Here is the input.
Amino acid sequence: MTAKQSQTLRLSDLSARKPTRFALTPGADERAAIAAELGILGIEALGFRGALTPRGRQDWTLEADLAARVVQACVVTTEPVATDLAEKVVRSYVADLPEAEGEEVEMPEDDSIESLPATLDLAAVMAEALALALPQYPRAPGAEFAGLDHAGEGVDALTDESVKPFAGLSDLLKKAPGKDD
Here is the structure.
């Protein structure tokens, strides 16, 4: 399967005896659309290859390899930062998954389990896996955050030391009545 062919599979149409293999390699326009959706500068390369394997009568397991080269803005300098990603992706689609009830729901230990859909959009699984794999705080080589020093004229800028709750306590104790200096 290529990116130009259908990326949505109806699970009931797949073989219940053997894995269904897939390989997605989105073109430049598709990668640009995914990058825009994820709010990153670009995706230079993207591949998603794997198989959907039947488990029992109705359940399925997706196992795939995600490989990508993404470009994000450095959190310090905003310079472009390229990162190579290689991730294993595993999803289990279960037919009899109980529905969450109530306002507060505990997250299951295995976060790869999902309710069995009628159709599976492989491109959506790929985009979700890519979003989860992105570095949260990309930094250009050698980029160091030196802090900001911005205050109006005649006003002392806040520093890490001045905002500590007990920073001035020793000065107050020295000035307290009855202290010998």
The chain is about 15% helix and 30% strand.
